[in-house]
Amino acid sequence: MEKLDFSQAAQNAQAIPHNQQEKQMQEEAKREGILEARRMTMRTLLTVDAQERLNRISMVKPEKAAQIENYLMQTAFRAGRSHKMDDAELKNLIELVEAKGQRLGHMQSHMLA
C-alpha cells in the first residue's frame, strides 16, 4: 500500500510542473498571438519605410515604440485611416508623441515638487 501511495504522490508531483509548464506555454502562445496581431496591424497602417523606422526605434527604445504603436492603433480605428502612413508622417507623429511626453513629464515634476 505504501508503494501505491508513493507512486501516486510521484505522479501528482510530476503533474503539477507539467500543468505549470502547459500554462506557461499557453500564456506564451497568447503573447505571441497578440504581438503578431500588432505586427499585422502596423503593416496595414504604415508603409515599408515607416515600418522599418518603427522597428529601429523598438530596438533602441521599446517603450517609445509601443507608445507610438498604441497611438497609431487608437487614432487609426477612431479616424478610419484610408491610406498608409509614410515615413515623413511617422516622423511628425514621433515628434508629436515626444512633445506630449515632455509636457506630461514637466507637469508631473511640478506636481511632485
Which descriptors apply to this entry?
single chain, 113 residues, mainly alpha, Helicase, Ruva Protein, domain 3, elongated, disordered C terminus
CATH topology: Helicase, Ruva Protein, domain 3
Q: End-to-end span in angstroms?
A: 70 Å
* Cα radius of gyration in angstroms: 23 Å
Query: What letter string, H or E per element, gives the SSE order?
Result: HHHH
Oligomeric status of the shown chains?
A: single chain
Q: How many distinct beta strands?
A: 0
In the CATH hierarchy, what is the class? Answer: Mainly Alpha
CATH architectural group: Orthogonal Bundle
Biased composition (Basic and acidic residues): 20-31
Pfam families: dsDNA_bind
Family: Belongs to the PDCD5 family.
GO molecular function: DNA binding
Kindly describe this structure.
The structure is a single chain. The protein is mainly α. The protein has one domain (2-112): PDCD5, DNA-binding domain (Helicase, Ruva Protein, domain 3, Orthogonal Bundle). It has four helices and no strands. α1 crosses α3 (62-79), α2 (48-60) packs antiparallel against α3 and α2 runs parallel beside α4.
List the helices and strands and how they pair.
Elements: H1 2-45, H2 48-60, H3 62-79, H4 87-112
Helix pairs in contact: 1-3, 2-3, 2-4
Give the structure's gist in a few sentences.
The protein is mainly alpha-helical. Helices cover 89% and strands 0% of the residues. It holds the Pfam family dsDNA_bind.
